[in-house]
Specification:
About 25% of the residues lie in helices and about 15% in strands. The two termini are about 40 Å apart. It is of the alpha/beta class and about 525 residues long. The strands form 2 sheets. Strands 6-5-4-3-7-1-8-9-2-10 form a 10-stranded mixed sheet, sandwiched between helices. A 4-stranded antiparallel sheet has the order 11-12-13-14, with helices on one face.
């Protein structure tokens, strides 16, 4: 594959010498665009209410307006059961970028300046590194949130890029960009209509636009190669990390008014349609702003798709739409949108379009966060570039035909919840506490929580999802011994495979039979 790509790039270099540097001279190796808004739950896509899709899921689709995603779904392989294993922004992104679970990605917790324990490993071969090594021009646009913030503001040396403690936002210097040669990004900053970004050269931009629409336009500018920011002789790999529909979603400061107008007059019972959603919670009214953000993201995504069509790039471009984690939105008696084993938190969108290569369909593959990196490389024909020793598995063969014998379908996906370890004298967190572990299968969800001091079981969640898709009844473990035994055996096997702290510390051995 490397030799073939080298020949293609060499041929294009010869063309470039004669002045032919248009996208038409680009090699036939597929381009890849990975768009992943944050906190976008799988149910928040309108096509799940359509024939051909609704029969593949056991939930009622949210009443959202997503015309571009609806059309895109009919052109894509759509996963109904993709899972965010550690459903928080930073841990998921660490797994996405490295193909490893949080215990090895370097990112077990959401990143801020109090948590040096959580920062993307500099020595890891990340997805951008792999695509760059394969000859791709690589661009990162939008939210990153995998760096431990340090006082490295390029315009104010020795200072953080934000005030207040702990600092959440971060600037990523060139040596930590892992193969991405075009940069227009930030750490994390939740002011959606006044975002900011640092470019490739470290200059800050404050566009004062709603961030997904601005990021879509920057992506389009990159595709058009405005300012000669990419090598048109190379295929491209673009990651677009949109922040909405991540909170806040409280007012018109957080979304576009034209999108909010679609929902503003609808009663809550017409919006919070899931039987486990409590419309009396204080948070309930925010669903209008959340859905407005979903619709705005849909429009921004559509702008990128339109640009691919206009530039003649769509046929040879793999486009993925996904998310970090979901949003509980008043279900399960919690206002915490994430960091839980509930379906609304773990189940995320995952749609892949590769025209004339992938047959559009719905698939129930239990894809996990670390699987994304090797699978994207596999879809692009870059199996040889997949680093050794990853936790993730290349499931590209299942996307190509759905029945491949080359790779076995997973029978479960891990759930991980990590919390701060003990604060040290300087107030920093340099360890983490593995507070809960669990497993999601086709039929069940199990999560076990331990006491911080004793490491003994303090709480459990067990749902028979096949019979109780909204997880309304928490089943007592002692009343379902065979089910618990089977789930714990699967979980123990997976925890050993990834060398998780629960395995290395032999936590709950009376329940979990580690191999």
């Amino acid at each position: 594959m490397k030799n073939k790509l080298s020949l293609l790039i060499g041929a294009c270099s010869a063309l470039a010498a004669t002045g032919c540097t248009s996208p038409a001279a680009a090699p036939e190796h597929p381009n890849v665009i990975y768009v992943f808004p944050d906190q976008f739950r799988n149910a928040a896509m309108g096509f799940w209410a359509e024939d051909g899709f609704r029969e593949h899921v056991d939930f009622q689709a949210d009443p959202v307006h997503t015309p571009r995603l609806n059309r895109f779904a009919h052109e894509s392989v759509v996963l109904s059961s993709a899972q965010s294993n550690c459903p928080l922004s930073s841990p998921h992104r660490g797994s996405l970028l490295t193909g490893m679970y949080p215990n090895r990605s370097g990112v077990p917790l959401n990143c801020n300046s109090d948590r040096p324990v959580s920062s993307l490993r500099e020595d890891a071969v990340c997805i951008g590194d792999a695509f760059a090594q394969a000859g791709y021009d690589c661009a990162y646009i939008g939210k990153l949130h995998v760096d431990y913030p340090t006082p490295n503001d390029p315009e104010h040396p020795g200072h953080y890029v934000a005030e207040g403690q702990p600092v959440w936002d971060a600037y990523t210097p060139p040596e930590r960009r892992h193969g991405f040669n075009y940069w227009y990004s930030y750490g994390t900053f939740d002011v959606h209509k006044n975002p900011h970004y640092w470019d490739t050269d470290g200059h800050r931009h404050d566009p004062k636009e709603w961030s997904p629409l601005h990021e879509a336009q920057r992506t389009i500018a990159y595709l058009k190669n405005e300012g000669n920011v990419r090598d048109p002789r190379k295929p491209f790999f673009i990651m677009v990390g949109m922040n909405p529909p991540h909170s806040p979603y409280r007012s018109l400061d957080d979304c576009m008014e034209e999108d909010y107008n679609l929902y503003k007059d609808q009663p809550l019972e017409a919006l919070l349609v899931r039987p486990n959603a409590d419309r009396e919670r204080e948070k309930a009214a925010s669903v209008r702003y959340y859905f407005a953000s979903v619709t705005g993201v849909d429009r921004a995504f559509g702008q990128i798709l339109d640009a691919l069509d206009e530039l003649g790039l769509a046929k040879n471009t793999i486009v993925v739409f996904a998310s970090d984690h979901g949003e509980t939105m008043c279900s399960q008696a919690t206002d915490d949108p994430k960091n839980s084993p509930y379906t609304e938190s773990m189940n995320v969108p995952f749609l892949v379009r590769y025209p004339e290569v992938l047959r559009p369909r719905v698939d129930d593959l239990l894809l996990s966060s670390p699987d994304i990196m090797p699978t994207l490389l596999g879809l692009a024909g870059l199996d040889a570039e997949i680093p050794q020793g990853l936790h993730g598995i290349n499931y590209a063969p299942l996307f190509f035909d759905g029945k491949s014998q080359r790779v076995e379908r997973p029978d479960g996906a891990l759930y991980l919840q990590n919390m701060n370890g003990e604060k040290e004298a300087d107030g920093k967190i340099r360890t983490y506490f593995p507070g809960a572990r669990g497993i999601k299968t086709r039929d069940y969800t199990l999560a076990l929580y331990i006491d911080r001091k004793t490491r003994r079981l303090k709480k459990s969640l067990l749902f028979h999802d096949a019979a109780d898709p909204y997880q309304l009844e928490n089943l007592p473990l002692e009343e379902h011994p065979e089910t618990v035994k089977d789930l714990c055996a699967r979980m123990g096997r997976l925890l050993k495979e990834i060398d998780d702290p629960w395995y290395t510390e032999n936590i709950l051995p009376e329940l979990i039979p580690y191999p």
